[in-house]
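Reminder to self: tokens first, then the designed residues, so the page reads top to bottom the way the pipeline ran.
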């Protein structure tokens, strides 16, 4: 007889439910530690067939730690599980664990591909750099806003130019300087750290074969290439390159019921950060890139017909498909060849 386990994971405690032959045989809680859960599973369910839990902040750690313990851990999409779990009359951690165990037993779930720690490390590096960049932008905007109150208008400029303007304007306002110069120093320090992480991203991208292949596309830089490689991980995860566009959320929604059948906006599912980077790269290809290619020519023709924004979205989808095909074949971008549709 096989057991099926559902885990409702939280930061401190994890609710556990074990089922066998259509009935619950044990339910309880334990510390949210994969080692402790592994001991509990070996004691309560020695012939376990599936251990199901939802996506969340701890899902990557739990998945790899339980797999290292030779346990059949399965991570499922929390949005898909929500519909089944909402059928319970009361929303509790114990009931959620029961529902997940029931899903594990009947096999009614969609497994999520959990990224490896190396990919997550690279994604963390990019996320940290992006956060620091946002902090510098927020600080500079606050400094500009505070100084406007006192009639000190900072001329346009970035980086050291911005810093020079601020210090020059504050030189005749000692009391205001005591307030804003600490913010300016924090802005300078944050900007330096963001630049250091950006150099680290570029250095690691130059050492990665997949990133070097993708950066041969005009408009695709180190951050976009690294984000795409770490999101895809292996080209074999997709049987068709066309599937990547839908996976990133760049294909249109469809609603069909009876005589009603129409397409709406893009689904916006999947990695929203990668989707934004692909849209940005497509915008660069359409507006700033001087390198002629069939990809750019296709996008420019589409822009004339449907407008810039919709053409950029379509080009972003085609760019994602092309990038996956390049990783799969290990070939550089050729400007004279037609991109994959």
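Designed residues (341 positions):
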């Amino acid at each position: 007889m096989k057991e099926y386990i559902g885990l409702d994971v939280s930061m401190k405690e994890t609710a556990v439910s074990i089922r066998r032959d259509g009935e619950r045989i044990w339910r309880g809680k334990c510390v949210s530690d994969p080692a402790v859960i592994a001991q509990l599973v070996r004691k309560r369910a020695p012939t376990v067939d599936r251990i199901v839990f939802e996506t969340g902040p701890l899902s990557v750690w739990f998945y790899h730690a339980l797999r290292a313990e030779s346990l059949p851990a399965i991570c499922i999409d929390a949005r898909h599980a929500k519909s089944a779990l909402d059928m319970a009359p009361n929303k509790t951690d114990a009931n959620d664990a029961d529902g997940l165990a029931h899903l594990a037993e009947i096999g009614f779930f969609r497994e999520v591909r959990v990224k490896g720690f190396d990919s997550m490390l690279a994604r963390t590096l990019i996320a940290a750099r992006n956060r620091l960049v946002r902090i510098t932008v927020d600080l500079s905007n606050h400094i500009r806003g505070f100084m406007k109150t006192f009639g000190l208008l900072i001329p346009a400029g970035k980086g050291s130019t911005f810093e020079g303007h601020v210090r020059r304007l504050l030189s005749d306002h000692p009391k205001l300087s005591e307030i804003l110069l600490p913010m300016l120093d924090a802005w300078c320090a944050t900007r330096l750290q963001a630049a250091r992480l950006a150099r680290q991203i570029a250095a690691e991208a130059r050492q990665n074969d997949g990133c070097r292949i993708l950066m041969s596309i005009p408009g695709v830089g180190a951050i976009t290439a690294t984000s795409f490689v770490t999101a895809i991980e292996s080209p074999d995860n997709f049987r068709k390159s066309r599937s990547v566009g839908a996976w990133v959320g760049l294909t249109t929604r469809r609603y069909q019921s009876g005589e009603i059948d129409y397409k709406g906006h893009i689904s916006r599912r999947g990695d929203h950060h990668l989707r934004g980077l692909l849209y940005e790269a497509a915008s660069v290809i359409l507006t700033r890139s001087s390198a002629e290619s069939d990809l750019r020519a296709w996008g420019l023709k589409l822009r004339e017909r449907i407008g810039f924004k919709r053409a950029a979205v379509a080009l972003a989808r085609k760019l994602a498909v092309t990038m996956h095909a390049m990783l799969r074949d290990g070939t550089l971008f050729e400007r004279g060849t037609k991109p994959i549709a």
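Residues 117-149 form the longest helix (33 residues).
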